[in-house]
């Protein structure tokens, strides 16, 4: 049940406004029921959503070839919930506009093949998105090889760590 704050204004003898507030329980209306239902549906979908666990990362493996570390190709599921601005729009239109890594024809092929799904179910390219729809797009990933040279430690003290990182290995600024 949701609570609302009610502000009441009173004037004191010096004509100053004194505000007081009290909590009031909201009535259990259809709007509140719909909101609760949406939250439950979201929790259920999140429970199915693939996470970034150790098991997930252990699905990939790599090998060394000609001085390069290469990752074996693997499948990955990109997921996102429907954004408010997408509600009522066709799934194909949203993917063609918002995810421009591929042309619309490729997204249409994925929808028809069932690798691009809504709530893990196959839909038509004309499907109109609803609140809390979970979009999942399964892709076959091929990662760029990096050097197999080791990362060596050059200097370490309590203020700084200096490493000799080969140029092909990506870093994060965090």
From TrEMBL:
Keywords noted in UniProt: RNA-binding
One of the GO biological process terms: enzyme-directed rRNA pseudouridine synthesis
InterPro entries named among the record's database cross-references: RluA_PseudoU_synthase
Keyword RNA-binding found: yes
One GO molecular-function entry: RNA binding
PANTHER family reported in the protein's UniProt record: MITOCHONDRIAL RNA PSEUDOURIDINE SYNTHASE, PSEUDOURIDYLATE SYNTHASE RPUSD2
The protein's name in its UniProt record: RNA pseudouridylate synthase domain-containing protein 2
Organism (species): Euphydryas editha
């Amino acid at each position: 049940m949701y609570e609302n704050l009610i502000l009441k204004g009173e004037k004191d003898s010096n004509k100053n406004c004194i505000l007081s507030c009290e909590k009031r329980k909201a009535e259990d209306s259809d709007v509140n029921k719909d909101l609760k239902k949406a939250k439950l549906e979201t929790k259920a979908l999140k429970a199915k959503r693939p996470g970034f666990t150790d098991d997930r990362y252990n699905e990939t493996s790599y090998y060394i070839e000609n001085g390069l570390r290469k990752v074996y190709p693997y499948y990955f599921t990109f997921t996102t919930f429907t954004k408010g601005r997408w509600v009522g729009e066709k799934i194909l239109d949203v993917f063609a506009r918002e995810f421009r890594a591929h042309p619309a024809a490729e997204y249409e092929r994925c929808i028809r093949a069932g690798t691009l799904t809504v709530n893990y179910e196959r839909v038509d390219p004309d499907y109109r998105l609803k609140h809390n729809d979970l979009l999942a797009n399964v892709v076959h990933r091929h990662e760029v090889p990096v050097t197999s040279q080791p990362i060596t430690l050059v200097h370490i003290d309590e203020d700084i760590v200096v490493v000799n990182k080969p140029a092909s290995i990506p870093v994060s600024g965090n």
